Each structure stands twice: as C-alpha cells, then as structure tokens.
C-alpha cells in the first residue's frame, strides 16, 4: 500500500516535459556501433584534411605497422631521374633537319623548343684545345645577344676583347647522334683568337 501511494505521488509531481527517472539503458552493441561510427567519421575528416602526399605517407606507414617490413623498401629510386636540362642535352641537335623531326617524342620536342629559342647568326666558340685542332661551337642565347657577345665582343667564350674583330666563316665538322655532319658557321674573333682558329692552317 505504501509503495503504490508513493508511486502515485511521484506521478502526480512529475512535470509534463520531465523524463522518467529510470530511462532504458542502450545495449552495449548499440553503444559500440555508435562509437565505431564516430571514430570512422573522425578518421575520414582527418584524411580529407591531408594532401595527397601526406595521405600516401600515412597509408605506407600503416601498412608497415600492420604487415611489417621496412619503410626504405617503399622509397622511390631516384637514380634514373632526369631534369629538363638532361633531356635537352641528350636530344640536342646543332642543326635540326627535316628527317630529325620525324618520329618526334616529347624529349625531342623539348630539345627542339630549346633550339628554336637560340640565335643562329653568330656562334660562340671554345678554342681552349686549338693546338689539338679541336673546336667547340654553339649558338648564342638571349643574354649573349643583348650583351653583344659573339658580335661586338669576341666570340671566344673565354675572351671579352672588342678591338679588331674579324668575321670568319668556318666549315664546322662534328659528330652528332653517331652521325658525321658539317655546317657553315660565322664567327667574330679578335686577332689573338683568330690566330688560334687558324693555328693549323698557318
């Protein structure tokens, strides 16, 4: 009797918006499921906030952590890496002919693009091995054209003389891509460098 009257009194005092004293406790499986969902949401948010490389590093380190191994095994080999300059050097032509432009690869196109930017009126010469009758010639780049190197300054790359320059037309014989070629090139040299150019002829 006492218990029923107490329950009735509690029911009378309970406000309409108030929840019961004894709410049902969720099953532990439901709680675990909700916890997993929250954890997955947090992980997904964390991955989205990373950039592609950071995600890659995380996945690799997780793989090593769970399956074993060494992180060094996943490092990319850089032994065969090439810069644009390496590609240009390998595919460079002193003069491009029509047959050179057949079967163009991206490497050849890059070298051709560089070649098209060169100024092919006067050459710059390397006369350091003139006594061996070995000469190196290349076309001028933009900075050399602006400074007058090779036209108003001596065309020898190690000489800055601008007095008594003389023009020479030279038959340049060279080997390129395993093939013998020759081209007529123009040079502007000071008297001393002109002597080096004609050393063996004299």
UniProtKB/TrEMBL annotation:
Residues 1-24 are annotated as: Disordered. This is FRA10A associated CGG repeat 1. It comes from Cyprinus carpio (Common carp). InterPro entries: Folate-sensitive_fs_Fra10Ac1, Histidine_acid_phosphatase. Signal peptide: none annotated. It holds the Pfam family Fra10Ac1. One of its GO terms (molecular function) is phosphatase activity.
